[in-house]
């Protein structure tokens, strides 16, 4: 039984005080929604303070990135050892990391290994660019990203995968539910091929890309889509709470 999952990726938005304000606005309502695993991923500088605010609540904390070494002369980097005192989850391989900061599949693989060996649960992001989509290469790209990310990793069910077509991120142009579910079924088949069918059935796979309170139902009405990774809409307390509430309600109905 896969527990529905909704994470908010705040990206490079919010100062510490702004982040705290958003948490104050949403925490009580989010905390009451029991059927969904809820994760907030604020910027690094807010992790300590939000870790304390979430203490005693059912809302969990995630980081947006990390380096794959645990410590050393890597100026400006944040390690899994530092994160694991604060976070349960870490987003890895987000397309903004891949395309703006040159993260390769090999780097993503090293990061996944480092996260798992330090008891952090990775939220692995995969997704094709517009030109790849238009050239009919979606499955080829996804197969490569998932296979290389999981290379040499023992089967684990505490991995979350987010299918985030790059053309849908921050554009207001979400994929259709039909497009998303087709690729998510494909991702599960790739995981089954790399590991095995039963582990693949335990791994949660989310959709991400311009998710809002208006379109969330279209995605999570499919039993194969376990939730969402939400960017822009997760910065608005009412929007994010509504996305989580709808996820809880719909998943309960279709169980
Ligand atoms: C994201 O950052 O992972 C994302 C999906 O962003 P948005 O919801 O803003 O498209």
Summarize the structure.
By secondary structure, the chain is α/β, with parallel strands linked by helices. Helix content is 44%, strand content 15%.
Explain how this protein is built:
It is a single chain. The relative contact order is 0.15. This protein has one domain (5-254): TIM Barrel, CATH 3.20.20.70. The N and C termini lie close together (9 Å). The mean pLDDT is 97. The protein has 11 helices and 8 strands. Helix content is 44%, strand content 15%. With 255 residues, it is α/β, with parallel strands linked by helices. It has an 8-stranded parallel barrel with strand order 1-2-3-4-5-6-7-8, surrounded by 6 helices. The chain binds phosphoenolpyruvate.
Could you give a short account of the major beta sheet? 8 strands, parallel, barrel
Amount of beta strand: 5-15%
End-to-end C-alpha gap: 9 Å
Gyration radius, rounded: 17 Å
* Ions and ligands: phosphoenolpyruvate
* Number of separate domains: 1
> CATH superfamily, called what?
Aldolase class I
Overall SS class = alpha/beta
Helix content: 40-55%
- CATH topology grouping: TIM Barrel
Unreliable spans are none
Number of strands: 8
User: In CATH, what is the class?
Assistant: Alpha Beta
């Amino acid at each position: 039984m896969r527990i529905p999952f909704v994470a908010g990726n705040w990206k490079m938005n919010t100062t510490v005080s702004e982040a705290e304000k958003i948490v104050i606005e949403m925490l009580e309502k989010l905390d009451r929604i029991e059927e969904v695993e809820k994760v907030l991923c604020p910027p690094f500088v807010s992790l300590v303070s939000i870790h304390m605010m979430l203490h005693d609540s059912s809302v969990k904390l995630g980081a947006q990135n990390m380096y794959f070494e645990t410590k050393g002369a890597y100026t400006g980097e944040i390690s899994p050892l530092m994160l694991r005192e604060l976070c349960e989850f870490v987003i890895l391989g987000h397309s903004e990391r891949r395309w703006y900061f040159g993260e390769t599949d090999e780097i993503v693989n090293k990061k996944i290994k480092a996260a798992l060996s330090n008891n952090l649960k990775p939220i692995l992001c995969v997704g094709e660019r517009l030109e790849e989509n238009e050239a009919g290469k979606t499955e080829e790209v996804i197969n490569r990203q998932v296979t290389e990310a999981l290379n040499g990793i023992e089967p684990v069910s505490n991995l979350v995968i987010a299918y985030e077509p790059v053309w849908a991120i921050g554009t207001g142009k979400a994929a259709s539910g039909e497009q998303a579910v087709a690729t998510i079924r494909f991702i599960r088949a790739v995981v089954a091929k790399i590991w095995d069918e039963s582990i693949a059935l335990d791994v949660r796979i989310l959709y991400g890309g311009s998710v809002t309170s208006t379109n969330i139902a279209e995605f999570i009405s499919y039993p194969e889509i376990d939730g969402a990774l939400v960017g822009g809409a997760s910065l608005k307390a009412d929007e994010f709470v509504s996305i989580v509430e709808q996820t809880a309600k719909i998943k309960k109905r279709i169980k």
